[in-house]
Design the sequence.
């Protein structure tokens, strides 16, 4: 039995901190749960580094690990080639679909 992936493409702005402790504003481009990997993923793009007609936005995929109460949590880097391949396929499919 195959499970369906759930997608959330509501845009949201997130403030994260870089390695130097500086605040950086990111736009959430896509969020989804992948049943095969059993993880939640979030695709971010740094706010201000692109416009609506820019085809070459740098997307930053992360694993979203919510805390126990479901509020907040932490983002972890994607580490396996299998996850990178799956994320690339999902992003290409979801970002290429015309909006209704």
Sequence:
């Amino acid at each position: 039995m195959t499970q369906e992936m759930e997608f959330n493409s509501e845009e949201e702005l997130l403030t994260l901190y870089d390695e130097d402790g500086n605040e950086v504003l990111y736009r959430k481009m896509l969020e989804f749960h992948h049943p095969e990997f059993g993880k939640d993923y979030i695709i971010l793009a740094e706010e201000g580094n692109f416009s609506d007609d820019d085809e070459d936005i740098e997307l930053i995929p992360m694993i979203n690990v919510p805390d126990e109460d479901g509020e907040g949590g932490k983002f972890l880097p994607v580490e396996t080639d299998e996850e990178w391949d799956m994320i690339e396929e999902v992003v290409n499919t979801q970002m290429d679909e015309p909006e209704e």
Q: What stands out?
A: The mean pLDDT is 81. Residues 6-96 form one domain. The two ends are 29 Å apart (CA to CA).
